[in-house]
Amino acid sequence: MPFKKLHADIKEVLQNLEITTPTDFQKTSIPVIKSGTSVYCTAPKDEGKTTTLILTTMHKLKCEEVGNIPRALVLVENNDKALDLYQSFLKYTKQTSLRVYVANEKEHIDLLKSEIFEGVDILIATPQLIAKLLMTYGVNLSELKIFNIDDAEFLSQTNAYNAVLSITQSISKCQYVLYSEKRNPNLKRLESYFMEYANVISV
C-alpha cells in the first residue's frame, strides 16, 4: 500500500484525518513519484491528485525544515488556487516543521521577497509571479528538489507556459511532476524542455 511506505509523520497525519485507503491513482502514482523520476500524472477529477502532490512533496522533504531557501515549488493557475492549495497543505503539514509559504499576488513584491528570505521549504505561487521574483532576485531555486504543477492544463495560456519555461531554465537539476486530467499537446511539448524521459501515469 502506497500510504504505508510514506514518511512516519505523514502516516500519522493520514491516520488522524482517517484517510486509510488510497485511490487507484494514488496506488499507481505515489511509488513512481517517490522513485525520483519526473512524471506526467493524469487522472479524472476526485482521484486524489492534489492530495498526492501534498503527500509526495512532504515525503521528498522528509517532513522537516532545512535551510532557508525553497526545496519544493508548486505552481498553480491563479492566486485563488494558490491560496486554496496553501490551506490544503497546512492541513497535512501543521504537525511537522515544514514551512509552507504562499506568494500572494495581492501583496507588494518587496514584502514577498522579505518573507521568502526568512525561510521557506515549500513555495506556492503562479508561474508569472515566480518568474518576476526570479528576475528581481527575490527567490533562490538552487536547492529545489521537487517542482510540481497542479491542474497543469492552464499551461495552454501562453503567458503561463512561457513563464514556466523561463523558470525551469534557471534550475540545474530537479524532479518535475505535472498533474492534469489530460495530457494536452502543450503539456506533451514540454518533453522537448524539462520533461524529457518523464514517466506517464494515466488512470
From TrEMBL:
Organism: Wenyingzhuangia marina
Domain Helicase ATP-binding as annotated: residue spans: 30-187
Protein name from the UniProt record: DEAD/DEAH box helicase
Any one Gene Ontology molecular-function term assigned to this protein's record: nucleic acid binding
Pfam families linked to this entry: DEAD
Keywords: ATP-binding, Helicase, Hydrolase, Nucleotide-binding
Presence of the UniProt keyword Electron transport in the record: no
InterPro entries, per the entry: DEAD/DEAH_box_helicase_dom, Helicase_ATP-bd, P-loop_NTPase
